[in-house]
Amino acid sequence: MRGPGKVSSQRRQRLLDQIEGRGSVRVSELAAALQVSELTIRRDLDELCGDGLVERFHGGAQIAHAGRRESPFADKALQHAAEKDAIGAQAAALAKTDDTVLVNGGSTTLAAMRHLRRRRVRIVTNNAAVAADGADATGEIILLGGALRPGSRSLVGDLALLTLSQIHASLCILGANGVSARTGLTTSVYAETAINRLMAERCDGNLAVVADGSKIGVTSNFAGVPLAQVRILITGPSADRQELDAIRAAGVQVIVASGDDARPEAAP
């Protein structure tokens, strides 16, 4: 069984087979493979997306389990590791001495905290993975309380939200399962959306989003933080350029981290 929806035609069945076989594919490639117009492909993709079978990104689509189903944290940490480390270094560079920095769960935000812990800052996070990773921190690390989600190693629930509601931060660094000009920040776990939204609200300074290139243009299950609240996006060189242009046009500063250097691109 492929998923919650039902493909309604032989062509759309072939389309789904093409996407499943490749993992992700451009609209132009699908049109050539199936010998139909790109407009037809887009309509078919809209139906498959509505059925929860695929996810759209700018110019193409990928099979839904790539972004909608939560991957084990240990697997996430191994994916795009070098890119995430470069993104994390750029995010940490935004922090000033004595800043209070809100950081949510995820492997990319954990990479950011590995660099942040070398600075004299106060990190407030629901990312429980930092507990085994931050023993040599120069500054202070405060873990929110709450219920532990082993799959994402994040703390969620009323206790986490209550603690978070008492904090005023000068910087917020958020990860997401998807970042899109159309849908903003989205996540695969409903319980984490409330944490992400409240972190954005409790921040009096910059809100920076960290996401490797595979997350750009993706819409995951649940709406999180609107793009209008985001000041900075830090991503990697694998990100879709057209989608970055659309995000930049929405007023977000884009920083492309690439190892030893990064390319900041000012918002208009």
Commentary on this structure:
By secondary structure, this protein is α/β, with parallel strands linked by helices. The chain folds into 2 domains: 10-66, Winged helix-like DNA-binding domain superfamily/Winged helix DNA-binding domain (Arc Repressor Mutant, subunit A); 73-265, Rossmann fold (3-Layer(aba) Sandwich). 34% of the residues lie in helices and 25% in strands. The protein contains 9 helices and 16 strands. It has helices at residues 10-22, 27-34, 38-50, 73-78, 81-92, 107-116, 158-164, 190-201, 241-249, and strands at 24-26, 54-57, 60-63, 100-103, 122-125, 140-143, 147-149, 154-156, 169-175, 178-180, 184-187, 203-210, 222-223, 232-235, 253-258, 261-265. The strands form 4 sheets. The chain has an 8-stranded mixed sheet with strand order 6-5-4-9-12-14-15-16, sandwiched between helices. A 3-stranded antiparallel sheet has the order 1-3-2. It has a 3-stranded antiparallel sheet with strand order 10-11-13. A hairpin with a 2-residue loop joins strand 2 (54-57) and strand 3. Helix 5 (81-92) crosses helix 6 (107-116). The longest helix is centred in the first third of the chain and has 13 residues, at 10-22. It is elongated, with a radius of gyration of 19 Å.
